[in-house]
Amino acid sequence: MAPHRVVVIGSGFGGLFGTQALKRRKDVEVTLIAKTTHHLFQPLLYQVATGILSEGAISPSTREILSGQKNARVILGTVTDIDLDAKTVTSEVLGRESVTEFDTLLVAAGAGQSYFGNDQFAEYAPGMKSIDDALELRGRIFGAFEWAELATAPAERDRYLTFVVVGAGPTGVEMAGQIAELAHRTLKRDFRAIDTRQARIVLVDAAPQVLPSFGDRLGGAARDRLTRMGVEVELATKVVGVDATGINIEKADGTHARIEAATKVWAAGVQGSELGAMLAEQSDAELDRAGRVKVNPDLTLPGRPDVYVVGDMMALDNLPGVAQVAIQGARYAAKHLKARLDGKSDPAPFSYFDKGSMATISRFSAVASVGKLRFSGFLAWLLWLGIHIVYLIGFKQRVTTLLHWAVSFIGRGRGERTVTAQQILARNIINAMAPEDLPKLPIVEADHVPAPAGDPAATTQEPQAERAS
């Protein structure tokens, strides 16, 4: 009997944990399709951006993680089409297109940064969703101090020493706090023409409080700590313009102001993957305002019991877009599928168990909300350390992270301060390229021969690209 073919889209928490939950099923064949070769521990991206951790510490190879799972295969590629009737997924990488058939589909493609209809802001204010984003921000942040050292006019120096973080959720708070520590502690002895302690860090959000999902008390504690660190907190303030040299804001009373700043970080808002719209067009599903797919209580797509949607793409019971929702959702989807394959009754509808929320503000200071408990300070910071080490994938990553944390939190150093012009410039240059100018895999005619029957490579299509001369 042919194995049941499961295609998983995405190598984040949802995709990886969903794949691993099917490990012991010999009657299941899993193909994981992802646009990167790594699994990303997204909660620590800001530490890559501020020089605490290397990108490898939070992004182990997906193939290495799944190397011992014999029923799992990994395919590199960006999903460009899903055909629910034909039950196929089309993916592409550097002009090479592949079509993979499925019996069951698990979509865990995550979410992207939302600029609330102002996508032009992205050119000057990178988000925080990928390794590329973090490395670009690292280049921009450390580069700003280098450029300030070269500045000859006070206004130019002040512009380079001003950092604006948009979004007062966990990512924004953590980023603002680390930039403040970088300027006030790590770099204070490294420059001669500037005093990095004079850097201005501004946290901006349209919401009326910091960390709104944590409640008034913890949000207030986080704001107080940020203020003591020298971070300016601008709440009830909308961003209405972003350009190369600054940011325009509108305050609650309707007044407008401008902050001259060379470095802007966008940590506000998320938008569901564009695959959500593709799924909605072919099913009875609807999308919410953030582009997430409204799913059934068993996480299947309305009208399509063979398609599960989990993680940041899923809209159900106002669940937050956090790692635990993705992990628990993926495991539930696998459990639901296994019951169906075994001819058993469906498990009870998905129920999320909230294990709490945490955010760091600075070294030795964090806020935590666990059940009915709300606490902040050093104890919350220790809990944050422990939880993040537990959920990092791979022994090497855990050891490396602990060593880097010791260097950064106990000492003053940051071991990952290497930056290049390519990190800063590559994204916008690539975005400006015409599709026909994007790099493609070279085509060698002799390579394209029919694959043997039953070979997974048989699903690979000939690249739609110009032939190399």
Automatic annotation (TrEMBL):
Family matches, as Pfam families: Pyr_redox_2
Region (Disordered): 445-469
Keywords attached to this entry: Cell inner membrane, Cell membrane, FAD, Flavoprotein, Membrane, NAD, Oxidoreductase, Transmembrane, Transmembrane helix
InterPro entries: FAD/NAD-bd_sf, FAD/NAD-binding_dom, NDH-2
Transmembrane regions listed in the UniProt entry: 375-395
A single MF term (Gene Ontology): NADH dehydrogenase (quinone) (non-electrogenic) activity
Record localization: Cell inner membrane
Topological relation to the membrane, as annotated: Single-pass membrane protein
Enzymatic class: oxidoreductase
Name assigned to this protein: NADH:ubiquinone reductase (non-electrogenic)
Organism listed in the record: Knoellia subterranea KCTC 19937
